[in-house]
């Protein structure tokens, strides 16, 4: 999966993270040697997801991202300084589903997972140009819903994503839905609470000790030789993924 920017080739040195993430989360990221780029608010989105990086940004490759036109200027002022090219997508996001999911595409192995009816057309073009094949699923918040932890291994609580990935010979752990904080909503998702800092290290926004699937998750991570780093002693929270470079 050399082409998957959500699964770093080397140890990451940059992380794009929800600008509202706690001081503890950010301090721990810095301890891991990561430069933090805080997201800005996307005014057109509802508050719970308005700072979430995986809603407005999709990394096409290790040095190229597509960004929602709503916030293009903000990221184009920052990311090129770190050698990352910023391309504006076509679809301007608006408040409610499905008008806010155009860039929330998950990637694993040689596949992109999304409800392709709503994928931004420019993003689709660039992903397919990279030789990546789309898998269509019902879940539009695909990246939020999928934690990629290996070349062909992932964790989700979404039945439609689980079913499709198993069909494509992926090793997928199905966990219990909920038990992840997302202020303003009933619960968040495992993909939105995680991000890889290296091929064998997973960043988790908070502790899993209250999650009923904790033992299954720990065994799955051990099976794939993945070390987890809790960035906070508080309950795990959906912060719109930790996007690393």
Explained architecture:
With 245 residues, the protein is of the alpha/beta class. The longest helix has 10 residues, at 214-223. It is built from seven helices and 15 strands. The two termini are 15 Å apart. β9 and β10 (153-156) form a beta hairpin. The mean pLDDT is 96. The strands form five sheets. The protein has a three-stranded mixed β-sheet with strand order 2-1-15, with helices on one face. A three-stranded mixed β-sheet has the order 3-4-5, sandwiched between helices.
Radius of gyration in whole Å, from Cα?
16 Å
Structural class from helices and strands?
A: alpha/beta
Q: Hey, roughly how much beta strand do the residues contain?
A: 15-25%
According to DSSP, the number of beta strands is 15
SSE order: EHEHEEHEEEHEHEEHEEEHEE
- Please list the strands of the largest sheet in the order they lie side by side: 2-1-15
Shape: globular
Major sheet = 3 strands, mixed
Average pLDDT confidence is 96
Span between N and C termini? 15 Å
Tally of helical segments: 7
> Could you estimate the helical fraction of the residues in percent?
10-25%
Poorly predicted runs: none
Layout: helices, strands, pairs:
Blueprint: E1 14-17, H1 23-31, E2 35-38, H2 53-56, E3 57-61, E4 64-67, H3 72-78, E5 85-88, E6 106-108, E7 111-114, H4 121-129, E8 133-136, H5 142-145, E9 146-148, E10 153-156, H6 159-167, E11 171-174, E12 194-198, E13 201-204, H7 214-223, E14 227-230, E15 243-244
Parallel strand pairs: 1-2, 4-5, 7-8, 10-11, 13-14
Antiparallel strand pairs: 1-15, 3-4, 6-7, 9-10, 12-13
């Amino acid at each position: 999966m050399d082409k998957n920017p959500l699964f770093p080739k080397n140890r990451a040195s940059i992380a794009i993270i929800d600008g509202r993430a706690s001081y503890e989360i950010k301090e721990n990221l810095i301890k891991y040697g990561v430069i933090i780029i805080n997201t800005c608010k996307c005014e057109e989105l509802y508050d719970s997801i308005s700072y979430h990086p995986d809603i407005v940004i999709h990394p096409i490759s290790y040095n190229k991202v597509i960004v929602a036109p709503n916030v293009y200027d903000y990221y184009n002022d920052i990311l090129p300084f770190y050698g990352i090219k910023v391309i504006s997508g076509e679809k301007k996001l608006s408040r409610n589903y499905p008008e806010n999911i155009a860039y929330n595409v998950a990637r694993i192995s040689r596949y992109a997972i999304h409800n392709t009816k709503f994928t931004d057309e420019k993003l689709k073009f660039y992903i397919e140009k990279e030789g990546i094949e789309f898998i269509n699923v019902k879940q539009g918040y695909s990246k939020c819903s999928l934690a990629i932890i290996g070349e062909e291994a992932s964790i989700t609580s979404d039945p439609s994503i689980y079913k499709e990935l198993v069909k494509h010979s992926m090793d997928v752990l199905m966990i219990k839905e909920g038990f992840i904080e997302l202020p303003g909503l009933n619960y968040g998702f495992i993909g939105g609470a995680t991000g890889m800092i290296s091929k064998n290290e997973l960043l988790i926004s908070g502790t899993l000790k209250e999650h009923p699937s904790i033992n299954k998750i720990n065994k799955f991570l051990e099976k794939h030789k993945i070390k987890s780093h809790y960035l906070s002693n508080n309950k795990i929270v959906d912060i719109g993924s930790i996007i690393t470079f």
